[in-house]
Amino acid sequence: MQKNILSEKFIVTGTVSDQSLLNTRQIQNHCLSNFSLETKIKDDQFWHLEDYNTIPYRQHIQWFQDYIRDHYRAEYDRTTVPCVGIRSLVQQTGESINYHNHVNPWDLENSPEISCLYCVSETNEPTYVIFKYDDGRNKHRLWKQEIKHNQFILFSSELEHTITENKNSGFLVNLSTHYQLL
Predict the structure, then answer these.
(1) Are 105 and 131 a contacting pair, CB within 8 Å?
(2) How many angstroms separate the CA atoms of 26 and 129, rounded?
(3) Which of 7, 33, 52, 117 has the fewest CB atoms within 10 Å distance of its CB?
């Protein structure tokens, strides 16, 4: 008997090592300094991306992407290659993010296979990412993952997800990166 896996949906969580030179405060400041109407993603076909801001390259972001590539390759024997650009997701107090995914149905070739949220802000009140998925006959299942400072959440880009209301007095800042696999 041989079992073949036809598709896979996953969520992987982890934290960046304290030994890394990566500075979450610098990434947070970079995301906030690029938080404006000019950097908001404006795409009529993908209204859900209006919550995201495009942000330019920064060395600490490159170090984060290198960290993800190296650790993902060591654990799963596949290499992540950044695609789609770098985004930030800044939630103000009382703001939540609607359900969406990161796959562009009109451009599947350039759509990411893996998405990543990396929390760079320190918060007191918990906020969650809720993933919606189907598992065969088990429809409309949910997985709830808390967002924590210095924690990354890697997940299949086709997973519908929402981020619950930010109940903190300050901004909730997440770096959003996307990858294809080799």
Answers:
(1) no
(2) 23
(3) 7
Closest to 49 (Cα-Cα) out of 111, 128, 93: 111
At residue 47, the pLDDT reads: 58
Neighbours of 105 (CB within 10 A): 10
Q: CB-hemisphere CA count at 13 Å for 140?
A: 0
- Cα–Cα distance, 34 to 17 (Å, whole number): 26
CATH of region 17-181: 2.60.120.620
pLDDT at 41: 65
Task: Please report the pLDDT score of residue 46 as a whole number.
Answer: 56
Sequence-ordered list of residues with C-beta below 8 angstroms from that of 114, at least 6 positions apart, any chain: 80, 154, 155, 156, 157, 178, 179, 180, 181
Tokens of 4: 């073949």
DSSP state of 68: H
DSSP per-residue codes, 148-165: -TTEEEEEETTSEEEE--
